[in-house]
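Our platform keeps sequence and structure together, in a single record for each protein. This encoding replaces a full spatial description with a residue-level series of whole-number codes. We quote a single record here, exactly as it is kept in our systems:
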Amino acid sequence: VAAAARLSLAQASPLAADTLLRRAEADLRATLASSSKPSAQAWYYLSLVYLMQGRQAASEDAAAQAYAADAWLDEARSILSRLLFAALFAGRYEDAMGHCREGMRRFPTFAAFQECELTILGWSGRGDSAIRAAWGELRGIDSLPGPTTGTWAVRRLLVAAVLARSGRADSAARVVEQAWAEPARRNARPAFLNYEAYVALLSGRREEALTLLGRWLEAYPQYRTMAAESPWFRELRGDSTFARLTATD
């Protein structure tokens, strides 16, 4: 409970995040060391701590431990989602699809799995067939009943990423513009400037990508380490501006 509280505080208190995350990690490791059997919930929270620290491999391992300890835990759908994204971060797209399909089978109404095929395409899709598949996934998700409106713009940014990766930079830019065309959706834009930065970078607009990423990290400094380690921005490593934006001290 204490570790979960510290994790929540770290997400809400960027300036104290490093200290809170270290304490949460210590609490969770103590819980795991003192338990006679694996604690799925402790492993799950430890996975989230590692994720916020930018320790992707450790986060994936902890999530796998959580799922192995109790695949029917209340947080199982979130653990599967965490495993999916860990595979994406590692560039293991077949593994990501495996988690996606298991999630769709077990939790068909959970938004992360309703959208996971589009998510994987957004991270990796390239070429005409991927573009067609992305638009098809988008239309299918848009037609679903239920709470899919919160990711309406994000879904379009994922399609834009496929277009940009396929050399369709102008089309990608139009899709990004359309994603925020409605005034009611613009309030959510600051939270997803990292997606826009990724699309800009895929489109060859490096300076724009850095500007967008800088605005995102100014609003969410607790994600600097994660951004530094993200495969989305791999080609920016070694760039002095990127190093400054993602510096943690």
About this structure: The chain has a mean pLDDT of 90. Residues 5 and 24 are 8 Å apart (CA to CA). The two ends are 29 Å apart (CA to CA).
